[in-house]
Amino acid sequence: MKSKTNWFKKDSTQAVLMLSPMLIGFVLFTYFPIIYILRYAFYDSNGIKDTFIGFENFVRVFTRDKTYWNSLLNTIILSFGKLAVEIPLALLLAVLLNKGRKGTGFFRTVLFMPTVISAAIAGLIYSLMFASFNGIVNGMLQNIGLIERPISWFSYKGSAMFVIGLASVWNNFGINMVFFLMALQSVPQELYECADLDGVNPVQRFFKITLPMIGPTFQVVLLNAIVGSLKMSDLILSTTNGQPGGKTEVVMTYVFKYFFGYDGRTIEVGYASCMALVTAVVLAMISLIYMKSSKKLGNSY
Amino acid sequence: MHYKYKKILGNTIIYLLLLIVFIFTVFPLFYTFMGSFKSNMELLANSGRLIPEKFITDNYVQAWKLANFKQYTFNSIFLSFFVVVGTIFTSTIAGYVFERGNFRLKNFLFAMVVSSMFVSLGSLTLYPQLMTAKFFGINKSLWGVIIIRVFGLNVTNLFVTRSYIRTISPEIDESAKVDGCTFFRIYRSIIFPLLKPLIATLAILEFRFAWNDYLMPMVFTLSNPKRMPLVVGIMNLKGTGAAASSWNLMLAGTSIAIIPMIVVYVIFNRYFIKGLTAGAVKG
């Protein structure tokens, strides 16, 4: 009896006991799903009946499923297109709101606000705003006479992607602005004072001092932003849901629909797993390429 | 004189720019709030007008009573509450054990947990997660979502708590140990109370996450619409064929979903920003 209480009182035992619920949860809900996807990539399965088919799913992705690659391409275009606006905007705002200008606190608080809103809701608001007949954007443009008849924003790939990108920028620029603000605050003031003495103009100051000094943060922020955008799904489901005709489908929603038979598709768990696997590898490759090519940014000072 | 003009001009341009971004930021929110007070007739007929001709609160009454938003709101609160409270305990315990604990395989387990971060499957793990939940019979309610979120070990939270606990002097633990405190007792009586500032941050982060979550609760309530949280309920309304006739409900519902979030943000905005930045930079 005595030895049992001692065993229970041992620090290492208690540590393991305390951690075990989370470890079990982790194995069940994080590790197992990865193994599941690895396994089912080699199966044909409708969720009930499984048949081992070897590499057949991979052959299908790589040779026959053009739509998958289109959705991957869409994801990449959409991500980099919107980041080309979002990141410079966030950086510019951070620089403007960094100094003791009047009203900075107010602007910081308000500009961050969309970031606290769900991506699905952001998409819904934008899809209402840009709706062709009753949307306020068309209504206002008509009122001021810029357009004669309503623009059908979601009927064309280009304009639909534009609205999705806009909604995504709206939903996400605040967080990047805050990251940049944090980085800017760690830049030593003396550097700027020296530069002022040398008569450096604001533009030079930005490119020669600010940017190199925040390089490491910039590298991480951009990586997070790229990976986050490539994994976009809620926003698409709540705006176009892939319409018109699957032209705005992104990779996550495309694969998701195969898993759940969502949106009128038949359930193909095996094939979906295979696409999920291929997607994870592609995303890892993109991150890796990014890390390699942005090394200079990371050690710029 | 010349210098002064240049400065005024510069400031004007800067404030003009900030004003444009301000409008870009606020317009969609303002549109939603204003729209939620318009009748459906007005929404559909006079779409170019921002401010309602006639303010009505009927949309809220309808959404609350007829369109199940009372239930959705309750579900959202339920989900968020349990995710927030549960995660506070599991995250701080995990951070504490990995930082101060001493047992075999600790480093190996930590490496296992961290390495999962590099597998970018995003929402694609939802299906196998649902299958696991089905195995345990928790796939048809929000309890499944709560259990996955609470026990699934969020790596970002783990990093944040672990590095926070690292800043607490180990001498405090040591002296408690000398006094006969066990490992768990040290967590409960010493470490946990010292984590208060961190807990506030964690709570805000998890609240935002749980309140805004869409895909996982959607999947778990597909066959049980009564358990849908707000975001899922609104999206469901959009998905049904009657979308055009329910614009007023969608706008009122959206307002119900985002107002609590914005209120929490405005009150705790410091913790919000601290939490979000801590997570990303450390991770």
Automatic annotation (TrEMBL), chain A:
<keyword id="KW-0812">Transmembrane</keyword>
<feature type="transmembrane region" description="Helical">
    <location>
        <begin position="76"/>
        <end position="97"/>
    </location>
</feature>
<comment type="similarity">
    <text>Belongs to the binding-protein-dependent transport system permease family.</text>
</comment>
<keyword id="KW-1133">Transmembrane helix</keyword>
<keyword id="KW-1003">Cell membrane</keyword>
<protein>
    <submittedName>
        <fullName>Putative membrane protein</fullName>
    </submittedName>
</protein>
<dbReference type="GO" id="GO:0055085">
    <property type="term" value="P:transmembrane transport"/>
</dbReference>
<dbReference type="InterPro" id="IPR035906">
    <property type="entry name" value="MetI-like_sf"/>
</dbReference>
<feature type="transmembrane region" description="Helical">
    <location>
        <begin position="160"/>
        <end position="184"/>
    </location>
</feature>
<feature type="transmembrane region" description="Helical">
    <location>
        <begin position="269"/>
        <end position="291"/>
    </location>
</feature>
<feature type="transmembrane region" description="Helical">
    <location>
        <begin position="109"/>
        <end position="133"/>
    </location>
</feature>
<feature type="transmembrane region" description="Helical">
    <location>
        <begin position="205"/>
        <end position="227"/>
    </location>
</feature>
<dbReference type="GO" id="GO:0005886">
    <property type="term" value="C:plasma membrane"/>
</dbReference>
<keyword id="KW-0472">Membrane</keyword>
<feature type="domain" description="ABC transmembrane type-1">
    <location>
        <begin position="72"/>
        <end position="290"/>
    </location>
</feature>
<dbReference type="InterPro" id="IPR000515">
    <property type="entry name" value="MetI-like"/>
</dbReference>
<dbReference type="InterPro" id="IPR050809">
    <property type="entry name" value="UgpAE/MalFG_permease"/>
</dbReference>
<keyword id="KW-0813">Transport</keyword>
<feature type="transmembrane region" description="Helical">
    <location>
        <begin position="21"/>
        <end position="42"/>
    </location>
</feature>
<dbReference type="Pfam" id="PF00528">
    <property type="entry name" value="BPD_transp_1"/>
</dbReference>
UniProtKB/TrEMBL annotation, chain B:
<keyword id="KW-0812">Transmembrane</keyword>
<feature type="transmembrane region" description="Helical">
    <location>
        <begin position="12"/>
        <end position="34"/>
    </location>
</feature>
<feature type="transmembrane region" description="Helical">
    <location>
        <begin position="142"/>
        <end position="160"/>
    </location>
</feature>
<feature type="domain" description="ABC transmembrane type-1">
    <location>
        <begin position="73"/>
        <end position="268"/>
    </location>
</feature>
<dbReference type="Pfam" id="PF00528">
    <property type="entry name" value="BPD_transp_1"/>
</dbReference>
<feature type="transmembrane region" description="Helical">
    <location>
        <begin position="194"/>
        <end position="211"/>
    </location>
</feature>
<keyword id="KW-0472">Membrane</keyword>
<keyword id="KW-1003">Cell membrane</keyword>
<feature type="transmembrane region" description="Helical">
    <location>
        <begin position="247"/>
        <end position="268"/>
    </location>
</feature>
<comment type="similarity">
    <text>Belongs to the binding-protein-dependent transport system permease family.</text>
</comment>
<dbReference type="GO" id="GO:0005886">
    <property type="term" value="C:plasma membrane"/>
</dbReference>
<protein>
    <submittedName>
        <fullName>Putative membrane protein</fullName>
    </submittedName>
</protein>
<keyword id="KW-1133">Transmembrane helix</keyword>
<keyword id="KW-0813">Transport</keyword>
<dbReference type="InterPro" id="IPR035906">
    <property type="entry name" value="MetI-like_sf"/>
</dbReference>
<feature type="transmembrane region" description="Helical">
    <location>
        <begin position="77"/>
        <end position="97"/>
    </location>
</feature>
<dbReference type="GO" id="GO:0055085">
    <property type="term" value="P:transmembrane transport"/>
</dbReference>
<dbReference type="InterPro" id="IPR000515">
    <property type="entry name" value="MetI-like"/>
</dbReference>
<feature type="transmembrane region" description="Helical">
    <location>
        <begin position="109"/>
        <end position="130"/>
    </location>
</feature>
